[in-house]
Amino acid sequence: MDMRDTIVYAIGDVHGCHDELRALEQKIQLDAQQFRGRKIIIMLGDYIDRGPNSRRVIEHLMAPPPKGFLRVCLVGNHEVALLGYLDGYLSREAWLGYGGRETLFSYGVDPDRLASLYGSSEQTDARIREAIPASHVDFLRTLPVMVCSEQFVFVHAGIRPGIALEAQDEGDLTTIREEFFQAAHRLDRWVVHGHTIVDVPTLDGRRLDIDTGAFQTGRLTALRIVGKYGRLLSSQD
Predict the structure, then answer these.
(1) 154: three-class secondary structure by DSSP
(2) Cα–Cα distance measured from residue 192 to residue 209, given in angstroms and rounded to the nearest whole number
(3) Chain-wide mean pLDDT for the chain?
(4) Of 34, 42, 85, 190, which shows the fewest CB atoms inside 10 Å?
(5) Alpha-carbon distances of 217 from 22, 51, 197, 235, rounded to whole Å
(6) Model confidence over 106-149: pLDDT tens digits?
(7) Which secondary structure element, helix H or strand E, spans residue 190, and what is its range?
(8) How far is the C-alpha of 100 from the C-alpha of 98, rounded, in Å?
(9) Which residues, 6 or more positions from 160, have their beta carbon under 8 angstroms from its beta carbon?
(10) Whose CA is closest to 3, among 156, 144, 143, 154?
């Protein structure tokens, strides 16, 4: 991605917090009025699970972005897990324990009630899979895993040190923690990511984690980048 004459707003993990996302977008629209040039919102993944309104968040992200903005939505490990369950690679129990229960509630489905109604695991899974609109699943399947420029990398969890960006493993990009954190001072680009909850986003070497645990704190965070300069915005300020 070419970031010349571009203002980027990266948004951390939403996890079903639709109201916080709307509030933060309004702040971003106000903030962006002072700038000319192209304006892009980059969503860092994990739109579903844990919070109350996963369905509304997905519908919101499928709709056009705020006027005057482009929007890029990256994939997070929670989207990967949902697709894994839908495709039969992840058990229902594993997915529900991961936060999927709240996602199903947002689609009007109570998995425990379905299980007691049908008894059969296959029938229960079939009913659950029918409850999530195909358009939502198709949207999640199209999400890219990373956006890069000459100076910046935007990704859900981080990157594996010592491996070229084009050779990174998708599993690492959505789940990595310790190996990435330990290499923060050796990175050759700024990496903006989420995945690991922090109280206050603080620069660590060349990485900045902006996941402020919106589903627990009610605080969804964005990072605005203009040239070499960054500023944090919050849904709560």
Answers:
(1) strand
(2) 6
(3) 95
(4) 34
(5) 16, 11, 10, 11
(6) 999 998 888 888 877 888 899 999 999 999 999 999 999 999 99
(7) strand 190-193
(8) 6
(9) 168, 169, 172, 176, 179, 180
(10) 154
Distance CA(153)–CA(140), nearest Å, equals 21
Residues 47-72 as b/e (b if ≥16 CB within 10 A, e otherwise) read bbbbbbbbbbbbebbeeebeeebebb
From residue 114, give the alpha-carbon distance in Å to each of 93, 99, 125, 211: 13, 17, 9, 33
**What pLDDT band is residue 105 in, cutting at 50, 70 and 90?**
very high
In the block, tokens 């981080």 appear at 158
Residue type, 112: D
Question: Which tokens is 25 given?
Answer: 């977008």
Whether 2 shows a pLDDT value over 90: the answer reads no
Cβ neighbors of 45 (< 8 A, separation 6 or more) are: 13, 73, 74, 75, 76, 77, 78, 79, 143, 156, 174, 194, 195
In this structure, what DSSP letter does residue 88 have? Answer: T
Residue 6's H or E segment, with its range, is strand 6-11
Q: Which of 190, 199, 206, 184 is nearest to 234 (CA)?
A: 199
In tens, the pLDDT along 37-77 reads 999 999 999 999 999 999 999 999 999 999 999 999 999 99
The whole-number pLDDT of residue 121 equals 87
Calculate Rg over the CA atoms of the chain: 18
Q: Using DSSP bridges, classify how beta strands 70-73 and 146-148 pair: parallel, antiparallel or unpaired.
A: unpaired
